[in-house]
Amino acid sequence: MDPTQALAELKELSTQIEVVLVASKSGDVIASSVGDDRAAELGGAAADLVTMAERVRADLGREALSQLQAATPEGSVFCVVDGDRVALATTGPDPTAGLILYDLKTLLRQIAEDGDQPAAAEPATAAYSEPEPEPAEPEPAEPEPAEAAEPGADGGEEGDGDAG
Q1: pTM for the full model?
Q2: Alpha carbon distance 93, 24 (integer Å)
Q3: What value does the mean pLDDT take over residues 70-99?
């Protein structure tokens, strides 16, 4: 999908995102919801955030960085890293962090040149939903014989009511 089109769609759908851009890890802007000068500044900031977070991650011996959030009382900055690309979004105070991160990951998948990651995610969801209907079908057949045994148990139910 065209990066500019993907950004426009995200801005329409997400009311919490104020500014969004996609840049390379070096800070070169690929697409942005703001003007060129501001986008270049934010692209550089995104590259700096990712670089510093990567240093901390390496010092701690952790896995590769995939996402980060910096929160202030005035709002938050989110970055999601996918290969050599970074998606950055700014929000107001108290955003739904999980939703923003999900939206940025989706944005990067939409503009990905290789479709490997989205293709891998889709079958896992489809495979999970298919088995659910099968166990549900035999269950309704079992209660019918149990209902036939209940009319003889009416006296026992009244005894339970007397005891309480």
Answers
A1: 0.66
A2: 27
A3: 95
